[in-house]
């Protein structure tokens, strides 16, 4: 491959978190596909291996996706970037998973980038990584973000020192563009 054929995320390892149940399908599949198409090596992470059941519109069962590794089997130094999709139930399940939350804490302690959309920032709140940071999320998380010391704003995408956040699936184009840009910049 010539240098002109190089993709922006060639050689970048990305872990994408998924709950065993309840992650919003499009918030999982579109970022995963986008970073993969940009050259990243993507690993699906969850509390257990097997299949993770996603949803559409929080209530309707969607497709199931294979999990590559358990949170308990990995460490932050294995990934250059992380993605945390939303889904009300999925995000609530992720923020209750101690190993998943610890992975996010370690990842941000190493100042590595992370992208999170919709209800996904609940896990960032749980991991204690929103203090003194501007971010966005699904509107109902505003109080949670502010109570955790973050500054919540109503924008389609917010990038603050390696943390990329968006409000909902309508913002996916802006979100995926921003995570590719941020993940590429961090890997240089």
Describe this structure in words.
- The structure is a single chain.
- The chain is of the alpha/beta class and 188 residues long.
- It has one domain (7-186): 3-Layer(aba) Sandwich (Rossmann fold), CATH 3.40.50.
- The chain is built from 6 helices and 12 strands.
- It has helices at 25-37, 88-95, 98-109, 121-126, 142-147, 172-186, and strands at residues 13-17, 21-24, 41-46, 50-56, 60-67, 69-70, 81-84, 114-117, 134-135, 151-152, 157-160, 163-166.
- The chain has a 7-stranded mixed beta sheet, with helices on both faces. Strands 2-4-5 form a 3-stranded mixed beta sheet.
- The two termini are 19 Å apart.
- The model has no long low-confidence stretch (mean pLDDT 96).
Short overview:
The chain is α/β, with parallel strands linked by helices and about 190 residues long. The chain has helices spanning about 25-35, 90-95, 100-110, 120-125, 140-145, 170-185, and strands spanning about 15, 20-25, 40-45, 50-55, 60-65, 70, 80-85, 115, 135, 150, 155-160, 165.
Instruction: Give the integer mean of the pLDDT values.
Output: 96
Please state the CA-atom Rg, rounded to the nearest Å: 15 Å
Query: How many structural domains can be distinguished in the coordinates?
Result: 1
CATH topology: Rossmann fold
Based on Cα principal axes, name the global outline. Answer: globular
CATH level 1 class label: Alpha Beta
Strand segment tally: 12
Helix content class = 25-40%
Task: Report the β-strand fraction as a percent range.
Answer: 25-35%
Q: Given the structure, what is the number of helices?
A: 6
Structural class: alpha/beta
> From the coordinates shown, what is the CATH architecture?
3-Layer(aba) Sandwich
Note poorly predicted spans. Answer: none
Q: CATH superfamily membership, which one?
A: Class I glutamine amidotransferase (GATase) domain
């Amino acid at each position: 491959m010539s240098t002109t054929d190089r993709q922006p995320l060639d050689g970048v390892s990305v872990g994408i978190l998924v709950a065993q149940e309840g992650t919003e399908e499009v918030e999982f599949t579109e970022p995963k596909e986008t970073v993969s198409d940009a050259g990243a090596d993507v690993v699906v992470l969850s509390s257990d291996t097997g299949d993770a059941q996603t949803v559409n519109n929080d209530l309707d069962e969607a497709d199931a996706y294979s999990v590559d590794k358990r949170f308990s089997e990995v460490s932050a130094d294995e990934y250059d970037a992380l993605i945390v999709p939303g889904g009300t139930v999925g995000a609530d399940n992720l923020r209750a998973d101690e190993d998943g939350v610890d992975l996010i804490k370690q990842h941000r302690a190493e100042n590595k980038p992370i992208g999170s959309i919709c209800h996904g920032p609940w896990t960032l709140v749980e991991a204690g990584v929103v203090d003194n940071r501007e971010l966005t999320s699904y509107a109902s998380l505003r109080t949670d973000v502010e109570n955790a010391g973050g500054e919540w704003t109503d924008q389609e995408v917010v990038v603050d020192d390696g943390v990329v956040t968006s409000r909902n699936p309508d913002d996916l184009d802006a979100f995926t563009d921003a995570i590719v840009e941020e993940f590429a910049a961090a890997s240089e």
